[in-house]
Specification:
By secondary structure, this protein is an alpha/beta fold. Helix content is about 25%, strand content about 25%. It is built from 3 helices and 6 strands, in the order βαββαβββα. The strands form 2 sheets. It has a 3-stranded mixed beta sheet, with helices on one face. The radius of gyration is 15 Å and the shape is globular.
Length: about 110
Amino acid sequence: MERWRLIIDAPRDGARNMARDEALAWAGAPPTLRLYAWQPACLSLGRFQRSGEIDRAACGRAGVAIVRRPSGGRALLHDAELTYAVIASEHHPLLGGSSILASYRQISLA
């Protein structure tokens, strides 16, 4: 059976968390599960989401940083949570292989 790498990172700010995910994705790393937290609280925007949809002033007043994720989707508020990232080929057999939605389903069933 193939070995996966497990990375458990200390809490980091949003920009550093996203830079770490992106670096792992581009590094040609072995299949990896990364667990991490956000400090301070951060709103992450999906790759293609328009930043104009976000009330930046309200985020600033609340002390919530804003960052863009390398993945798609909508805005997510990260605060006092454990986040995971799966870094592997989209065609990896353990991830469903046929589509990104199949991959999400397979991960959620694990």
